[in-house]
Design a protein that fits this description.
The complex is a heterodimer of chains A (about 475) and B (about 50).
Chain A (H helix, E strand, L loop, with lengths): L2 H24 L4 H6 L6 H12 L2 H13 L2 H11 L2 H16 L4 H9 L1 H34 L3 H17 L3 H29 L3 H11 L10 H12 L1 H4 L4 H7 L2 H32 L11 H9 L2 H39 L5 H24 L5 H25 L5 H21 L7 H19 L5 H10 L5 H8 L1
Helix pairs in contact in A: 1-10, 1-17, 3-10, 3-15, 4-5, 4-8, 4-15, 4-19, 5-12, 5-15, 6-14, 6-15, 6-22, 7-8, 7-19, 8-9, 8-17, 8-18, 8-19, 8-20, 9-17, 9-18, 10-15, 10-17, 11-15, 12-19, 14-15, 15-16, 17-18, 19-20, 19-21, 20-21
Chain B lengths: L2 H18 L5 E2 L2 E2 H20 L1
Antiparallel strand pairs in B: 1-2
Protein name (chain A): Sodium/pantothenate symporter
Membrane topology (chain A): Multi-pass membrane protein
InterPro entries (chain A): Na/Glc_symporter_sf (IPR038377), Na/solute_symporter (IPR001734), Na/solute_symporter_CS (IPR018212), Sodium:Solute_Symporter (IPR050277)
């Protein structure tokens, strides 16, 4: 057991929780209040909140692990898509989502296509978020097993139960504020770690040479081309198709702040991936990747090798706390999806608040158990698992959403066909593995696109009212406006 | 007619990187295909500044 790190870990987790409670009680009562209070939040804080909500540190750990295990170009492909998340979302849907007035993805689908599409969307979010728990649990199990000196399986089970209790106790209030702290700790931690690595290797060029000396394939493309293309696609679309706070940022802040926050959050992402290159090179230069049971552990090995126990403790605590708040947000999304959006909305409109809460809690426990069982023997590297989540959501939601915004003719039948067709194709490809790793969305999302277009054209167009709504997304005059100005 | 124009630029740049995919040229021991993806990070940030 790493005593120093374990003590820091305990203190850190208690402190961040208390800070979260203090700030939330003082300022706002819920997460939605936090985002809608965006006008009082400056661009810089908004950028950090957006960055922290979107970037989960398990994916940071996974990105570094994949850069060492599969060669640095794989980490570059990860960043190639991930740094583009915010610009891509900003350019393609931010203004339109703002004018539509919705806050979440399923809400948009309800407004544009009706209840049936919303129901399918909620089901897809629940499946996607349940699987997204697996990389979170894998990452926390690796950190926990190192710091606490217990075996990986025990660490996954203990931390999985801990996450569920934290979320069930009403972790919502702490998410957003502690996210800001974790986001800063991550960024500063990565900066300090990068500086320490560069100093130890006498600069960037010698560092790369040391990495190549220890891992000769460090600079090579080691996977089929389709894997890099698929990973890029899955991350590029992540902001648009993930039910995270990205949409809420554009929906509830004033336009200027929302755009500037997204721009600065893109810079934070860029910095994390530049530091990621240095950390991965430091990891490769250790030459221990092949000796690890799980290659995602390389990030922890780098921290252990280059940092003093005090700094390592803070860094690992920051990582684990950030994973905890991500897992917390996922569990809450899953429980709200089933209890509120499906049960109360469609199955039992008269359900009491107590019943809804109880169902939400039960769903949370089931999702955690599923996540823990898969994470005990994780099917793949963390980066691949996160790529699967992005690919699944892209294959299901990408084109029904984008065509819903840009094409008046897209209708309910087309959206349902595209969503279900894309999701099923993706799942079949993941299970049968006919192509390269993470290349599934390259096949599944065009199938979704074709289905949305063909089925929409074969069925009746959406009502005039819906089509006018689409014109309003683009601030275009509607028929009613034209008549008014002519009359 | 700005987001659509910038999305088109982003997609064209990523298509060039992925179609050219020069894996047989190396700088500092890392393949050029990798470096092109790495330097695209800065292009993406520049595009978001242009948009704002």
């Amino acid at each position: 057991m790493q005593v120093m790190e374990a003590v820091i870990l305990g203190v850190y987790l208690i402190l961040t929780t208390l800070i979260g409670v203090y700030f939330t009680r003082r300022a706002h009562s819920s997460e939605s209040d936090f985002w809608t209070a965006g006008k009082s939040i400056n661009t810089f804080v908004g950028a950090f909140a957006l960055f922290a909500a979107l970037a989960s540190s398990s994916s940071l750990m996974g990105a570094v692990g994949s850069g060492v295990a599969l060669g640095i170009p794989f980490l570059f492909a990860y960043g190639f898509g991930a740094v583009a998340i915010l610009p891509f979302t900003l350019f393609l849907v931010s203004g339109q989502i703002r004018r539509s007035g919705v806050n979440t993805l399923p809400e948009f689908f309800k407004q544009r296509y009706g209840n049936a599409v919303q129901l399918v969307a909620v089901a897809i979010v629940v499946i996607g978020m349940t699987f997204y728990m697996v990389p979170q649990l894998t990452a926390s199990g690796l950190i926990g097993s190192y710091v606490l000196g217990i075996d990986y399986t025990t660490a996954v089970i203990v931390l999985g139960i801990g996450f569920t209790v934290y979320a069930a106790l009403g972790g919502m209030w702490a998410i957003t504020y502690t996210d800001l702290i974790q986001g800063s700790v991550m960024l500063i931690g990565m900066l300090v770690l990068s500086i320490l690595i560069l100093f130890q290797h006498d600069g960037f060029s010698p560092l790369i040479q040391d990495a190549l000396a220890a891992s000769p394939n460090f600079g090579d493309v080691t996977q089929p081309w389709l894997s890099y293309f698929g990973l890029f696609l899955a991350f590029l679309w992540f902001g648009i198709v993930s039910p995270s706070a990205v949409m809420r940022n554009f929906a509830s802040r004033d336009a200027k702040t929302a755009r500037r926050s997204a721009m600065w959050a893109c810079l934070l992402y860029l910095l994390i991936f530049v530091f990621g290159l240095i950390v991965a090179a430091g990891g490769a230069s250790l030459g221990i990747a092949d000796t690890l049971d799980n290659q995602d552990m390389i990030f922890v090995s780098v921290i252990e090798n280059y940092m003093s126990p005090l700094l390592a403790g803070i860094m690992l605590a920051g990582l684990l706390a950030a994973i905890m708040s991500s897992a917390d947000a996922m569990l809450l999304a899953i429980s709200a999806g089933v209890a509120r959006d499906i049960y109360k909305e469609y199955l039992n409109k008269e359900a009491s608040e107590q019943t809804v809460t109880r169902i939400g809690f039960t769903v949370m426990i089931v999702a955690s158990i599923v996540g823990i069982i898969i994470a005990i023997n994780p099917p793949q590297l963390i980066a691949i698992m996160v790529g699967w989540v992005g690919g699944f959501l892209l294959s299901s939601f990408g084109f029904p959403l984008v065509l819903g915004i840009w094409w008046n003719r897209a209708n309910k039948a087309g959206a349902l066909a595209g969503m279900l067709g894309g999701a099923l194709t993706f799942l079949i490809l993941v299970i049968t593995k006919p192509f390269a790793l993470v290349s599934e969305p390259i096949i599944a999302s065009p199938i979704s696109l074709i289905l949305v277009i063909l089925v929409s054209l074969m069925t009746a167009p959406p009502s005039a009212k819906t089509q006018e709504q689409v014109n309003r997304y683009h601030a275009e005059p509607t028929d009613a406006d034209t008549k008014k100005s002519a009359g | 007619s700005p987001g659509i124009i910038l999305v088109a630029i982003l997609l064209v740049i990523s298509a060039i990187v992925l179609i050219w995919w020069p894996t047989d040229i190396y700088f500092m021991g890392i393949t050029l295909a990798g470096w092109l993806m790495f330097f695209s990070y800065f292009v993406w940030f520049a595009l978001s500044i242009i948009y704002v």
